Amino acid sequence: MSLLLRAGTEPAAADTEAVSKRPGTRWVPTILLVLGALYCIAPVLWVAIAATKGPGELFTTFSFWPSLHGGFGYNLSHLFSFGDGVFVRWALNSLFYAGLGSVLSVAVSTIAGYALAKHRFPGREVIFLTILAGVLVPQITLAVPQYLLISKLGLVNSYWSVLLPSIISPYGVYLSRVYAAGVISDEMLEAGRIDGAGEYRLAWSVGLPPMLPGMVTLFLLQFVAIWNNFLLPYIMISDDHRYPMTVGLFSMLHQGASQPALYSLVVMGVFLSVLPLIALFLFLQRYWRLDLVSGGVKG
Amino acid sequence: MSPVAKRSRPRTGSAPYVLVAPAVLLLVLFLLVPIGYTVWLSLRASRVTDGGIGPRVEVFTGLGNYLSVLTDPGYVSGLLRMLGYGAIVVPIMLGLALVFALLLDVPRVRFGRFSRIGIFLPYAVPGVIASLLWGFLYLPGVSPIRDVASAFGLPPPDLLGPHTVLLSVANIGVWGGVGFNMIILYTALRGVPREMYDAARIDGASEIQIAWRIKIPLIAPAVVMTAIFAIIATLQVFSEPATLQPLSDSISSTWVPLMAIYRDAFVNSDIHSAAAASVVLALGTLVVSATVLTTLQRRAYGRDR
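The joint structure predicted for all components is written out below.
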């Protein structure tokens, strides 16, 4: 491999300009990357194909060949009528938990990050250190005590029980602080103060606009984290009308262990549940500032 | 503050406290209080008095729960299995992520956009859904992997058997995590000015030499960070084995510590053991990630500075 790579660079070694202009594809890296992509895409492709198969065909026909015998329509209509349309309920619940939870989380993280980055006040260091420690404590080990706490508050099995713990993200506050320190100009804040603007107005009109790209990134990270969360709703919610999609499909698989006919519906559910996040990413990918996560924000 | 308060310039005032208040309140409520409560619960136990006929009372047991958790064969084998799982997933996932990021950064690679989005795709798939998906790919009767093996005249592998199931679960972890880490590392690589490599190219360095000697040291901080988050995520493995459980007899109800904690807390109603095990798991994660952080940081920065 190293020989192949070197063969591509040597003739250009004398001239930097030629490096970028030389034609010709590097095939070894290209092939490795395409293989990696196929490994990642194949299971999703398989589930799309398997979703076209009716309950009888799933176990009998060759896996990577779609079925054209109306299995797709059958699975779709049976999935939507399963448990009086509870699947749609799960999808809407997921959207609700992830949508509202991530918006609130971004709001809380952004204002806290701004204050921690741009204000000097007693207690700041303690708060920031607590947040750093919070980043390192695995949230999921707190799920059981959070359950006990939520049950003391009488909120178990309510939408609140999943929503409230999802709002706080120590990592989100940490990233917001780093981002605010990088992008908000101290001179503009100072100028605003001299002009007599109040602190809240300054936060709104000087602090907020440059933070927007970072907020979109945080929103996506948090949306995915809540959408993908399983243990928290699994512990908190017992009424299947409040399940998010992850817990719903999990419970369906458990029923499928005794009724294999449900498997083809689960496959369809898996296929449908993958679509919204892929759409969200393709739509929002231009706004994604991942240098925020890789530590490259310099402002 | 109204515009009337001109020039009084309260440098701090109440504003920063108001701004951090929601975060601090939620942090206390859903992080600090649960941590404190867990520690308190883990030091107590529920005992039946009067030789089993009296009422249940809570008593202080000190480290008794910790002792029973650490000597419970279910927890111990779960902990070891989780460490084995981490030892497989973290290096393979980060190794692949780093290789893919470096390959994407090589000039004149075709289909770069396709590969980048393709490898990133599993990030959009929740762990439970990924496990359902791979579960079907492993399941005898549905599995295309077994179909392919049969087509080549090989015996179809038992992907959910006692010897293979750990690898099968690890594969789900790797599949789900490679893309996100690759994007983080690739973003870090794109942040490096191109001129950094020009001199090396003029001197005739190969892309592999450039990657090894220049690119990897430059993005070392990002590598350290992805490693820490990968470790934390790995030690929380729960949804993958829990989802595969109905498909495989080889996954017990205490297969990994979180499954055992769940069983203790919600099936056996032994909240005190569950609390002690949670503390052990959280402390263990903290120790492992802090150790890795300091070692990697020394290796990442020690040589240059």
